[in-house]
Amino acid sequence: MKGSNIMDVRRRQPIGVELVKRGVVTEQNIEEALQYQRKHPNMRLGDILYVLKACDEEVLIRAIGDILGEKGIILKPYDIKLNLTDYISLEVAKKNKAIPFDIENGKIKICFSETSNNKAMETIRLLMLNKGLIMDSYITFESDILKYLKSSEGEASDNLNISGQGNTITELIDNIIKTGMEKRASDIHIEPMQDSVRIRYRIDGELYTAANISKDKQAQMIGRLKAISNMHQEKQESQDGRILLYDDYNIRVSSQKNVYGEKFVLRLLKKDADIKNILELGFPAEEVRLKKSINKRNSMTIMAAPTGEGKTTTLYSIIDYLNSPEINITTIEDPVEIRIDGLNQIEIDKNITFSESLRTVLRQDPDIILVGEIRDKETAEIAVQAGQTGHYVLSTIHTINSVEVITRLRKMGVSDYDIASTLATTISQRLIRKLCPNCMKQRPFTEEEIKVIQEIGKKYNCEFDLKDKFTYDAVGCKQCNNTGYLDRMGIFEILDITDDIKELIMKGASSIEIMKKALEEDYQPLVIDGIQKVIEGRTNLEELNRKLLIY
Q1: φ/ψ (deg, to 5) at 399
Q2: Half-sphere exposure of 371 (CA within 13 A, CB side)
Q3: Which CATH superfamily is domain 287-431+488-524 in?
């Protein structure tokens, strides 16, 4: 790649000066990038500016490409229309940091890391010539190349046989679904592409490509999926359905039309899934704290997190913890994902809303009510009313942290008085991957890692004991699909609505003011629990940074 050595640490300034000259970034951006590089000496300038979001990512990579005499692009998942190992081995791809992603008119498009060199490009060019293909080269950020190569490791280790010529469409779909079950996938993505149908599995929160099915099977695959999920065959608009063919699973199906056909996402839900003890989920192992945080009569506890971060699973564990024959527990869910003996579980549908169901439940003499999600003002007000009339209400809401729950309720139209008088606890969580116990490699913390941990501790007035402590690298093995991680756990923050915080809410205080007061009390943000789990050896700083961007 022309001029690639310009990205070397000793020769960073020329490209920085050029980017400033072109108006892509400012001198301050470059200075911040250089400061960042001192903590991350192996990162190149382009990737650092990308991580720091110094400017529009596409403008940045195009400018870098222009400087280096190459075509710069942001490589998106939908751009990758080829199976990597059909063209080059994973080993060669990793060594040369190269991703083949498309073919047009006998030309194969290959994306390289911006730090790749002429030798890498020549190696891949010759390999393509041996296959009768002309290479059309592109560059992108090294971090994106490494991310896709990591995903391909899972792909290469997956011995899937789902596209064999002898398979009927019925067998093919069955094999796709059963493989997902075997691989512990939470979701299966079946995605029409320009020249194929891509199959991807979400495992431990990450998507892995498993196969690309021949395009000529697309229509039959769509027909089969619609038939077994009870969808309209002729309708191409968005649809929802269910597959009930598998004894151990309820499978929710969602379809969405795209430019190449209809995409399907299958959510795999175990019928008799074991409910984990709340402490097993990663909840702070303090029984006193747990009892203090939940089951406060005449009150409400709300779980807060973005979509897909395990809110519902945690609520189930809390319900299981509280469940006893002396208590009447009713849940209102969309849908009921796990059936629990002893609970009255209500599933809403298109004919009944959360708020309508909640009104009915209040006449059923409940002690504890679980409302799957507070989505609107009406549901929020009825939930508050339930909490004020002797019930304990559990629910979820979509916010970034536990303090912002208050802001979200305000925006829904709930009064400060009702929030202060009813809300007892808010809990926020994220799911992070656990290190694979089969292959994780112990090592001492680096000076840089120690500094990161100490700075976080100082920021939140928390001390971490790193004496005689070790961290672990994610290595990768067959057991974890070469990712280095196996399963997930929660990291949590708990905000108890104390009398002082109630007073602030009543005064209309901002979330910043409430956060400041909470930090003076017992509140610790997500990152603190995350660091503690790093020190315990359950995950590492790399994974925590992937989720929370701590450095």
Answers
A1: -145, 170
A2: 33
A3: P-loop containing nucleotide triphosphate hydrolases (3.40.50.300)
Just give the CATH number of 158-270: 3.30.450.90
Which stretch, 140-149, 196-205, 500-509, has highest mean pLDDT? 500-509
Report pLDDT digits (tens) over 66-112: 888 889 998 876 678 777 777 887 778 888 889 998 888 888 999 99
For residues 273 and 103, which has the higher predicted lDDT (pLDDT)? Answer: 103
Q: Are 202 and 190 in contact (CB under 8 A)?
A: no
Asked whether the CA dihedral 140, 449, 281, 384 is positive or negative, the reply is: negative
Class of 4-149 in CATH: alpha beta
What's residue 313's pLDDT?
A: 85
pLDDT at position 11, please? 38
Walk across the sheet containing 299-304 and list its strands.
Answer: 344-347, 329-333, 368-371, 392-397, 299-304, 423-435, 485-496
| Cβ pair 222, 260 in contact under 8 A | no
pTM of the model: 0.66
Q: Where are the domains of the chain?
A: 4-149, 158-270, 287-431+488-524
Q: Render 303-363 in DSSP notation, one character per residue.
A: EE--TTSSHHHHHHHHHHHH--TTS-EEEEESS--S--TT-EEEE-BTTB-HHHHHHHHTT
How many CB atoms neighbour CB 316 within 10 A? 23
Gap between the Cα atoms of 32 and 30, Å rounded: 5
Which residue from 36, 21, 544 is spatially nearest to 45, judged by alpha carbons?
36
Q: Which of 84, 83, 99, 88 is nearest to 126 (CA)?
A: 88
- Candidate ranges 87-101, 202-216, 313-327, 391-405; pick with highest mean pLDDT: 391-405
